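Lab notebook: predicted structure, single chain.

Context: the supervisor wants predicted structures on file for every construct in the current expression panel, including those that have not yet been purified. This is the next one on the list. No modifications to the sequence; it matches the entry in the shared construct table.
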Amino acid sequence: MVIRRIVLSDQTGGVDPNQMTAVAGALQTQLDRDFSPIWGPRAQVTALASGDAVPPRTWPVFIVAQPDAGLGVHLDKNGKPFAEVQSGDTWSITASHELLEMLVDPLGHKFRQAPDIDPAAGDQHLVSYLEEVCDPCEIYSYAIDGVDVSDFVTPDYYDASAAGSQLDFLSKLANPFDVPNGCYISWQDPVDQRWHQKTPDGSFVTAQGKINPHANPRADRDKAFGEAEAKYHHGLPDVVRGRAVGHA
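Prediction complete. Output recorded below exactly as produced.
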């Protein structure tokens, strides 16, 4: 099995090197102990020293004060994934969130077909949910060696018939496709050919423009919802501040 190489890179110059090392260690434990046995992808996580260049053939997670590409997971000009994470007192949770999503779907184009969860749809026709494994439970976190990391859903979360299974690592979700307040999920509907979301306030929204079939799905989703998408996906420090619910 391929073992990805992930590097944490502080672009602010203000993150304590000891904290960088501690976060890298916690993320490695999360992957080896909690995540990879459930999802499969494996990675080696290291923290770069301040000023070090990103080595070739690695996927960087940049800690930034102001994003260049936009907070979240993106593809560079060569099609290689990278993430930008907002600096601050909860950046380790966001780094965990983006790392796990990057490992499951590095190119931002994986979908799971399942019935539409929007009650207004009426007929529960099949739609395609973008596979982002932390968005539906992003308000939940837990501690590893004093470092907070993100909860994540299991593959059973995307199985409408899997009620009673473990749907997220912390077992906070009761049913497949549960989206607690503060969390969200995105999908494409083949009927109207638009992006849809259940948003953190519990409402259902539809993008104004139609899906661009030639664009990267994750990037197209981000563009479809614009500033609202950035707020939902990357207002994570405000959402999770003080919300760590477990220890390891």
